[in-house]
Amino acid sequence: MFYYLLWMLALLCRSSAADESSVRDADIFPSSPEIERGSTLKLFCVLGKHLIPHRNASHIIWKLNHELIAQENYNVVNETVSSVTIHNFTYNKAHVKCFIKYLGKEQLLVHAEVKSGFPPDTPGNISCIYYFNVELACSWTSGRQTNLTTNYTLYRNMMKDGRVITPNVAGSSCQSKAESCSFHYPNTPYSSSFCFQVKAENVLGEALSDCVPIALEKIEKFEPPEILSVQKIAGIKQLLAVTWKKPKKILPSQGLNCRVRYRNLYSNSSETVPVTPSSGEQITSLNLTGLWDSTEYAVAIQCISVESKFWSEWSREKKASTEEKAPSEKVDLWRVIESSHSAGNRSVHLMWKLLNHFPPPGRILGYRIQYFPENSAALKMMNITTDKKIILLLNEEAYIISVTAYNSAGDSPEATLRIPSTDEKTSQIIETVRTFTANEEVIVEWMASKSEVTRYVVEWYEDLETDPFRRSWRYISNSTNWRTSKKTFKPFICYNISVYPLYGNKVGAPYSVQTYIQEKKPSEGPMADTGIPGKNEITIKWKEISKDKRNGFISNYTIFYKPEGGKELNETVNPDVLQYRLKSLQANTQYTVHIMATNEAGGTSGEPKTFKTLKFNKEDIIFIAIPVGLSMLFLLVLWITCILKKRMFKNVCWPDIPNPAESIAVEWPVDASMNPFLKGVTSEDKTIGGLEDVSILEPCFPEEHENLLLMNRENHVSEYTDISTKDMINGDEKIPYSEEHEAAKHLSPSMPYTITDPDIRSQVLSTLIPAKKIQPLEMLEDDLHESQHTSHQNEENKGEVLNLPDLSEKAVFNPYLKNSVNTREFLISENLPERSKNEPKSQSTAISPFQQNIVGQSYVTLDMFGLATAH
Length: 871
Known about the structure:
The protein is an alpha+beta fold. It has eight domains: 2-117, Sandwich (Immunoglobulin-like), CATH 2.60.40; 124-218, Immunoglobulins (Immunoglobulin-like, Sandwich); 226-321, Immunoglobulins (Immunoglobulin-like, Sandwich), CATH 2.60.40; 332-419, Immunoglobulins (Immunoglobulin-like, Sandwich); 430-516, Immunoglobulin-like (Sandwich), CATH 2.60.40; 538-612, Immunoglobulins (Immunoglobulin-like, Sandwich); 619-644; 650-870, no CATH class. It contains 14 helices and 50 strands. Strands 12, 13, 14, 16, 17 and 18 form a six-stranded antiparallel beta sheet that branches. It has a five-stranded mixed beta sheet with strand order 2-9-8-4-5, with no helix packed on it. The radius of gyration is 70 Å and the shape is flat. Belongs to the type I cytokine receptor family. Type 2 subfamily. Residues 1-17 form the signal peptide. Residues 784-803 are annotated as: Disordered. One of its GO terms (cellular component) is plasma membrane.
């Protein structure tokens, strides 16, 4: 209560002394209180001047951490000071916060950190260690934790007649916040009558321990001794001599006890030998006997005063080796034989290791390799190396190889191995090999067909390892199984394990298996290759997963495929299958496919790939293409046939009928109305080589009809030849030019005719028209083509002419058509030159009786020239 009154007085004085220039919003008292746990806490909050008059102490609210303190615990001292009371405070540490509340808002003004704890207990268990003329260090225990800041004071008191005398001199005490404290030189005088006392104090109280007497000679601790040497003695086996020096800073006339610790570097165990040095000597030595030959040892020493209870620390270790002896065990030898080279040589990888036995053979200086052909021991060769491997280039013969390890004391026994010749065949003695794991061990078992074989070699290496020197091996005797820790092998790695039988100095054929000691699912899945899809099927291909990512033996592959918007399907195949044909797929549908590779530990899928099936397959295309192709082929053949037989089809379907009005053989009346045979004849004049109104007609019968019309031509030729000759002898007188013109203009359309020979054509023309009227043949041919267009103008008149009763019988065997055959007769005019008259009359031009009856004379048309030219 007295403390609270003092706080209030201090607050009132502070508030009265504050001026208006203060910039603090508020202050809290006490600012960092430490109280006993479970007691009552009271705090004061003082507002700053600039918050008055708008705010006062009645607006102050209090919170403990984040919880609002009830109003009944508040007390308004005056306009600027408010206090709060918290009963039974049990927090180790908490924050009490002062807020101002105005217009419904809370503003933090100030806060205080409050700690609660306990008064200190009486310190106990005081102990000290005395380092002569260096340090006096003491430690103690303080009991329960106070949770408050506690200070400790260590007192070093003198004792006289059993009474404690507290010296009032500097250096007789030391302060610390921890549970230890030290006196340092020169405040470390030696005395056998000291007692030590510790006082602990905090804000809640203090505690003082009893003064504990401690004799310094009993707590003295030396520095470690110094080892001068550890060495072997020449010619003496299994011995090391150790020499060391005593510590310097020790109490006078104190006896010492020491102990020497030694251990070989091949084991973790050690042995200790006690030693009592002479009191008057600073240097002490000791011989360690019964050690291993050729073995390195580490030696350390510590000492203690005969009256003290503290040993010194161990000295720094020093190492040395005992006297060497020749290695007593031969090396563990093995080989890997590669195939022969082109020159007949082969590489033999030779490797070996030292056997793990104690004592070890000491420091090996090197290895001596000797080899020679089995049948020629005199050809011995030798290599020396410090490595544990070598490559020998041997020929095709069998060889004997030996390896010897040596050190400064001598050689080890020879380890020999036989290399078979290249053509040597060995029988298969090992029948089966299997591997499995049990109780954190890997077990390899095998079965041999010959019971007399008692030695074997187990060889193992990673499947992806290509260096022969990285192979491991183990010799097994009198057993058909081998056990080793699982740590010998790496997990998720494929190993090749081979078992070789040994009989005599020969190595038999191995039996090899592959195994995983531990599996996990593959690191990646296969990548699918969809290829070219069909309508209802597709072939999925994939590649094997690389061995370094399989993590086990692949047991199967599963192909998952899913149509767009459909249900996922799958197919499972054996591990040796790398492609599969998916059938019964939907046409014209997009699919998603991925492949999962599975081993004993699980499966991993590759990246998905999409494909789309075709709308039609090959059969559908062929089914559609064959009818279309046949149709096109038929149309093509029909088109080619029409092109090749165009004239025949035209003559059959639309035959050409000659127009008699265009003939130049006879003279027709100008008035077509007076003659019914001249209907349809044009009045337009044409000039052909000086001839006017000459019409050119084409044959109106097909070629197959011409043969029928030439029948009995001999009977008709003679009749018409006489008539034609008479009429044409004096052509110039009988047919004037004008009459000739009219006759050429009105020819009968029913007269078939032809002239094939150009000479005959000229002779005929000379009989029809005067020589001076003849024009070039090219102009006649032009008019000939023009006249063909007019021959079809009046089909009705042509029909009347063809159907005359007096012409029908002779038209069937029209001798006029005989000119289409090879033998023709011509009409010879008297006016023709003598050469023409004397020519053979093997050919003649036929004049139909119809022509003769109409005009009384024969005629020739220019269509004959066209036919003759065609032939």
